[in-house]
Amino acid sequence: MNEQKKAADQEESLELLKKEIDGRDSFRPEVSPAVIKRLPRYFRYLRELIRMGKTRVSSAELSRMMNVTASQIRQDLNCFGGFGQQGYGYNVNYLYTKICEILGVGFGFRAAVIGAGNLGSALVRSPMFEKRGVDVVAMFDVSRAVIGKKIGNVKVYPMEELEARMREFSVDIAILTLPKERAVEVARQLTQSGVHGVWNFTGKELELGDCGIVVENVHMGDSLMTLCYEVAQKLNDTRKDSK
Fold first, then answer.
1. Distance, C-alpha 156 to centroid of its chain
2. What is the rounded distance in angstroms from the CA atom of residue 211 to the CA atom of residue 58?
3. Cα R_g (the chain), whole angstroms
4. What fold is seen in the domain 107-222?
5. What is the 3-state secondary structure (H, E, C) of the chain?
6. Confidence category of residue 26, pLDDT binned at 50, 70, 90
7. Which of 8, 44, 57, 203 makes the best surface tag, with the fewest CB within 10 Å?
8. Which fold has domain 2-103?
9. How do residues 197-239 score in pLDDT, each as one tens digit?
């Protein structure tokens, strides 16, 4: 009986939320970069709640999981319509669906990895793309040792075929894992290849907004140094306390 009531409550909540959202304007709001940076965390934690069989969650529960204040969570989600009800919280499956829509998980994006070295090969074999609705359809490299072979299930093509293949496969996102010295040259080629976004691991800061291409520059060294700073501060505090 409890399971039937839970299912009925969930269905009723879902219908109310749909009506609430459908009644709002469909324009895309301006959202701060800080909020956007947190969206993938909502995605991950909501996936975890679904795996746990949770049907609803409060902002307070999410707060404890994510180490973000409940107020901040409500503010973040209100940027996109809210998706919650006072006294009920959030329908987990519905909220997960809406976060997926906002993040473009269901858009069917296609990606290509440029650079079939250690990093590129590791990324291609990672399950993260499938989990986020991105299909890696090709790799590119200059090495004759890997051209024509498959890494994971993805075939490696020569760099000479980059622009033609990118258009042939309708690639939306280029993932750069090649040497830093080649980054600008390849970025120029990408402006003619029809891609809409670049995930850049080269360490070279790229800006292609004038060409209509969104770039996410990933600096793993910066992340490492941030960690080093936090560890150093912790050790310094420990030493002070021990005196």
1. 24
2. 42
3. 22
4. Rossmann fold (3.40.50)
5. CHHHHHHHHHHHHHHHHHHHHHCCCCCCCCCCHHHHHHHHHHHHHHHHHHHCCCCEECHHHHHHHHCCCHHHHHHHHHCCCCCEECCCEEEHHHHHHHHHHHHCHHHCCEEEEECCCHHHHHHHHCCHHHHCCCEEEEEEECCCCCCCCEECCEEEEEHHHHHHHHHHCCCCEEEECCCHHHHHHHHHHHCCCCCCEEEECCCCCCCCHHHCCEEEECCHHHHHHHHHHHHHHHHHHHHHHHC
6. very low
7. 8
8. Arc Repressor Mutant, subunit A (1.10.10)
9. 999 999 999 999 999 999 999 999 999 999 999 999 999 888 7
Question: Hunting for tokens 């919650």 — which residue is that?
Answer: 84
As given in the structure block, the two tokens for residue 68 are: 């973000």
Name the amino acid, one letter, at 20. E
Instruction: Tell me the domain boundaries of the chain.
Output: 2-103, 107-222
Residue indicated by tokens 């040497």? 179
Q: What is the pTM of this model?
A: 0.79
